[in-house]
Amino acid sequence: QVQLVESGGGLVQAGGSLGLSCAASVRTTFKYYAMGWFRQAPGKEREFAAVISGNGNTYYTDSVKGRFTISRDNAKNTVALQMNSLKPEDTAVYYCAAAAIGYTSYSRSPADFRSWGQGTQVTVSS
User: Fold this and answer.
1) Which of 14, 30, 44, 74 has the largest CB neighbor count within 10 A?
2) Per residue in 67-104, is it b (16+ CB within 10 Å) or e — as a string?
3) Could you tell me whether strands 10-13 and 120-125 are parallel, antiparallel, or unpaired per DSSP bridges?
4) What pLDDT is attached to residue 27?
């Protein structure tokens, strides 16, 4: 099991930037977990935003490509999400999640992620 604690988020105007960070407490080696960021807007289902494999492969949902960057530091057991050119539709609670699927794999499916953070609010005003 992995314990995840997110930080960052807040209120920003459209076009602005925010950074999220997630610290992981793991019993095994952090690099064998794919790390993802998901988000849930009011009245909507949780959706995939970005994922990074243990060896740094990344995948983004189309709506954030070119604006969001996911990164990780395996030595520090952390993952980050840098969000630029934010839009009001990016407003959501953002969740960090971990999937024990190996060093080179990643997934977009919430079902593969067994550990979740508590979520952090991101609000983008127009």
Assistant:
1) 30
2) ebbbebebeebbbbbebeebeeebbbbbbbbbbbbeee
3) parallel
4) 80
